[in-house]
Design goal:
This is Outer membrane lipoprotein-sorting protein. The chain has 210 residues and is mainly β. Helix content is 13%, strand content 58%.
Length: 210
């Protein structure tokens, strides 16, 4: 039978083990760092949907995830669920997948690094693109939500699989042109606060709310 002194020693050891598990468990979980920002999607001042931007870091890996839902009237009711999921290793894009579900159809675009080039298979509303990109890509539109670009950067549109040069049109305002549409990204310091999107169906604004 365990003596009183031995019992106290055992309890102290058990308590120490529990505390250490919290300490080291916290260190391990801290390796997966997550940041979430929320935006509203607006047309002519009216809210039509929400967008959640999430960045997850794990060592040298980064995952940028944009998820949005919109619903509006344009010669009939339109609803859209849109997701952009990008994987980066250090500063290089490794893969991107864009999925859209809507009452105008479902679409998928995939961009994958294949050792020395990217394979692009893009399908979106009234647009298809099957091609290769023979260079390393270090930026994309999803990355803009967490990392401020620089004038002259070359990025890829995850939805269209097209390259675009970033232009700083005024201080802290950056513009890209994708498939004939100009999109502008507005920053306050390092924080993205607003995006103006040209769209074949309807132009809209993505406005930060947190």
């Amino acid at each position: 039978m365990m003596g009183e002194a031995a019992a106290k020693t055992w309890k102290r050891s058990a308590l120490f083990a529990v505390l250490m598990s919290f300490v080291f468990g916290g260190q391990l979980s801290a390796q997966n760092q997550t940041q979430v920002d929320n935006y509203e999607i607006r047309v002519a001042g009216f809210k039509i949907g929400d967008l959640e931007a999430k960045l997850t870091k794990n060592g040298n890996n980064k995952n940028f995830l944009l998820q949005s839902e919109v619903s509006f009237w344009f010669f009939g009711k339109i609803f859209l669920n849109h997701e952009i999921d990008c994987q980066y290793l250090e500063d290089q894009l490794i893969s991107s997948r864009v999925s859209s579900q809507s009452n105008r159809g479902d679409f998928i675009t995939e961009i994958d690094w294949m050792e020395n080039h990217y394979q692009v298979e893009a399908e979106t509303y009234k647009y298809e693109n099957s091609t290769t990109i023979q260079r390393v890509i270090e930026g994309s539109t999803a990355k803009f939500y967490f990392e401020k670009p620089q004038d002259g950067d070359e990025i890829v549109s995850e939805t269209f699989g097209l390259l675009s040069e970033v232009k700083e049109v005024e201080k802290d305002v950056f513009e890209i042109e994708i498939n004939g549409n100009r999109n502008r990204f507005y920053y306050t310091g390092q924080e993205l606060t607003k995006v103006l999107i040209q769209n074949p169906i309807k132009n809209y604004v993505v406005q930060r709310v947190n």
